[in-house]
Amino acid sequence: MSTGTQAVLRGLDKVSGEVEDLPVAVGDTVTFGRLSVALTACRYPADNPASDAFAFLTISDTRSDERVFQGWMIGSSPALNALDHPRYDIWVLSCS
């Protein structure tokens, strides 16, 4: 596994249908709708960087100041460890 310095996440607003790609550097936080998404780590297979991405995310709802997700998301299996939010979906696209 190689360690990346940034990830590209995709956010979906299930109400409006808005989809946005969110580039975020390790250690930074981005906002999508009312979610705050912090990237702690990003990893990818050293022999095939395009094959998969693993990102450790902390996602909070800024309206309630409640953490709604914390853990590893896997690009090739977004349902394995997914954000459970009634309005928003966020998943990992790539790590570099």
Structural description of this entry:
This protein is mainly β and 96 residues long. The chain has strands spanning 2-3, 6-13, 19-25, 29-32, 35-44, 54-61, 66-74, 88-95. It has one domain (2-95). Helices cover 0% and strands 58% of the residues. The model has no long low-confidence stretch (mean pLDDT 89).
- Parts with pLDDT < 50 across at least 5 consecutive residues: none
The amount of beta strand, in percent, is: over 45%
Total beta strands: 8
Number of distinct helices: 0
Characterize the overall form: globular
Helix content: under 10%
> Helices and strands, in N-to-C order?
EEEEEEEE
Mind describing the biggest β-sheet? 5 strands, antiparallel
Rg, rounded, reads 13 Å
Q: How many structural units, i.e. domains?
A: 1
Q: Helix- and strand-based class?
A: mainly beta
Mean pLDDT: 89
Distance linking N and C termini: 12 Å
What key phrases describe this protein's structure?
96 residues, mainly beta, 3-stranded antiparallel sheet, 8 strands
Short summary:
With about 100 residues, the protein is mainly beta. It has no helices and 8 strands.
Write the layout of secondary structure elements.
Elements: E1 2-3, E2 6-13, E3 19-25, E4 29-32, E5 35-44, E6 54-61, E7 66-74, E8 88-95
Antiparallel strand pairs: 1-5, 2-3, 2-8, 4-5, 5-6, 6-7
